[in-house]
Amino acid sequence: MKRLALVLLAFAALLPLTAQIRGNNIVVTVEPDHQDWTYQTGQTARFTVEVRRSGTLVNNVSIDYKAGPEMYQTIEESKTLSDGTLRLTGTMRQPGFYRVDVTAHVDGRDYKAACAAAFSPERLQPSTVMPQDFQQFWEQAAQEARYTDLNPTRRLLPERCTKDVNVYEVSFNNMAWGNRTYGILCLPTKEGRYPALLRVPGAGVRPYSGDVWTASQGVITLEIGIHGVPVTMDQSIYTDLNNGALNGYWNFGMDDRNQSYYKHVILGCLRAVDYIAEYTPWNQQQMGVTGSSQGGFLSLATAGLDKRITCYAPVHAALCDHTNSLRNAACGWPHYFYWNKGQGKEQQIECSRYYDGVNFARLITQQQKGWFSFGYCDDVVPPTTAYATYNIVTGPKELSPYPATWHYWYQEQWDEWEAWLLRELGAKTE
């Protein structure tokens, strides 16, 4: 028995050392000849494709590749690379992104890589037209929503609290009585008044845990959901909603600006700012908003419509420049008019202008500071739309692209984003 106990103890000690699966032995790369991936229109970008196994080039490897303006690639070929390498060139006469996608076929499996070179991206301009009554429409919608009292609820979540932060699930009325927004509020435990940060979500249906870490740095944080359901239920409920009643919610009501699903979503963000201002120890000075993908769009909408926002950080911002595909250029997720070219969609096109991140970005003022970040390889939120949206902002702004990212974050990007927010909010970091 003693021997058995010693064996079990030794085995338990080795458990943390168990090898983890990480990365692939086969790696495909597409590398541009400019380190910043940026060119002027008319210049030629030179791309080097390599397929490696265990760090060395693979001989006689089969690949497929596509090349051309993103979302409108015109070159599509298959090749066998005798030495595992291929050199390609591309150019653009108009501002935009020239994208190369490569799929290598090795031992019955596919391995993918991409590179999107920027051509005079500082000159990109969006196609979206702002309706004459855009600002009036949203100001009236917000005013009507605010006729309804917030009637907030707050429930302590003791299992999530720390010595520095109290965590609550909260809810409040949105655009009508009983139409509620739910979120996770994190409050520093120490008495005082604090800057605040609203976190708005990416697309999907999920629970939320709240931003305890930022709150521990001396910032009130409120992370909201957008679907009018509690955000602390079992994951299976959100999975059922995502596959059922809320499947494709971004398309709901797009024939009518008053029926769009995103109307109550955007108003919920504004009411969340109301909640912070009225029911938390906000210092009435610094307030930020941030999110990625759909949350990047909601960050632009909130900052554009509510001047209590002093800083905003949209990352990989979706729902920008919907109509760009009507001129055969890359359009923002969810790519409303990419497949149908807008044919027979006149009502949806007009409605989309009221729910385009570009038009909210046009309302951002000199008193609001922005931090923008996105990836050049993103095939969900094309950098063409992200860069054009950044260009249209006239207020103070910073741009920090991470060219090699797709629709995900690098750790360095995440760290830079967090540091920028804390600095702009005047947080007292340890």
What structural keywords apply?
single chain, 430 residues, alpha/beta, nine-stranded mixed beta sheet, five-stranded mixed beta sheet, 18 strands, 25% helix
Q: If helices are DSSP runs of H or I spanning 4 or more residues, what is the number of helices?
A: 10
Q: Name the helicity range.
A: 10-25%
Number of strands: 18
Largest sheet: 9 strands, mixed
Could you tell me the strand content as a percent range?
Answer: 25-35%
Which strand order do you get reading across the main beta sheet?
A: 10-11-12-14-13-15-16-17-18
Mean pLDDT: 94
**How large is the radius of gyration?**
24 Å
Distance between the termini: 50 Å
Give a description of the structure.
This protein is of the alpha/beta class and 430 residues long. It is built from 10 helices and 18 strands. The strands form 3 sheets. Strands 10-11-12-14-13-15-16-17-18 form a 9-stranded mixed beta sheet, sandwiched between helices. A 5-stranded mixed beta sheet has the order 2-9-8-5-6, with no helix packed on it. Strands 1, 3, 4 and 7 form a 4-stranded antiparallel beta sheet that branches. Helix 5 (261-279) crosses helix 6 (294-305). 42% of the residues are buried.
In short:
With 430 residues, the protein is an alpha/beta fold.
Task: Give the SSE layout.
Blueprint (H helix, E strand, L loop, with lengths): L1 H13 L11 E7 L5 E2 L5 E9 L2 E2 L3 E9 L5 E7 L3 E6 L5 E11 L2 E11 L14 H12 L7 E4 L8 E12 L2 E10 L5 E6 L12 H5 L3 E5 L10 H9 L17 H19 L2 E11 L1 H12 L5 E5 L30 H7 L4 H5 L7 E4 L10 H10 L4 E3 L11 H15 L5
Parallel strand pairs: 2-9, 13-14, 13-15, 15-16, 16-17, 17-18
Antiparallel strand pairs: 1-3, 3-4, 3-7, 5-6, 5-8, 8-9, 10-11, 11-12, 12-14
Helix pairs in contact: 5-6
